[in-house]
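Subject: sequence -> structure tokens, single chain

Hey, anyone have a minute? Need the predicted structure for the following. Not urgent.
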Amino acid sequence: MPLQAGIVGLPNVGKSTLFNAITSAGAEAANYPFCTIEPNVGVVEVPDKRLDVLTKMVGPQKTIPTTFEFVDIAGLVRGASTGEGLGNQFLAHIREVDAIIQVVRCFEDDDITHVSGKIDPLDDIETINLELIFADIASLEKRIERTAKASKGDKKLEPELAIQRRLLEHLQANKLASQADLSDDDKKVIKSYQLLTSKPLLFCCNVAESEAGNAEGNSHVARVREYASQNGWETVVISAKVESEIATLEPEEKSMFLEELGLTESGLDRLIHAAYHLLGLATYLTAGEKEVRAWTFHRGWKAPQCAGVIHSDFEKLFIRAEVVAYEDLVAAGNMAAAKAAGKLRIEGKDYEMKDGDICNFRIGG
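Reply:
Had a minute. Here:
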């Protein structure tokens, strides 16, 4: 199943407007809570200028970018962990995604109501985080009860029970599971728990149209950025309304529009790249006469696993990978020149793939 980044936030922060812009999937956007009930799923292409360069160089029949999925999840309200609003549905949908993008309202607009009656992004973040923490506490308490019961007959479960109790104490201090001081082995143990607050997190600050060209944002954004940086989280500034307009433009018009705003790339492109990175993903490329194509892999994967992305048999039958770094190929001008310059490498099963590697896999039969 493709990796998914879930877009969450309080009602009326611009989630569905942002989702529409990202995927052009037509998610309903309205000025009242709970307009998104079932989660909308949209497949988004990952912008990659390297594909354009390789396409000009190789002249393939087609060019195929890589993709991943965004999920637009119903707006959360205070009390969701105890079933308020669409609480149970909301939490179940978050449990299914691999990373969370919190859309935070950083714009003033009297015509768009705020569920809390005030614009305070840190308060919004706290509301969401606390509901996720409360849900995790309830889930972990049930798990501890089961483990404690089972450990009476199986002493091997006692170390896991100790981890669970330590983590519960951490959550009860209103801290996310991802902030807990856990060893790599501990993290492996709790991974199967599917805790909501253990998922990778990114903040998307939604600003007004008039502030779309200001990468620094405003005073609301500054507060979110400071809070996020203290915890090692990334922040992306975006105007969902402007991005929804940009999404309807042709490439040339889009470039002109961005130029007028003083931007080199759209906020959506920045968000897509940030979410891709948040999910721990990277891209390798293949370049031939039939197609130039980007392939997604997990950072840290070895060459056979990456070959398996193309076809599962490629991993089983992997012999070697012929690899040239994108920068080396561009500098050489073509594959033959790169090979003549000694930039084409033969890599075996233990090679860890790098983002931007251009590959040709050799497999046995």
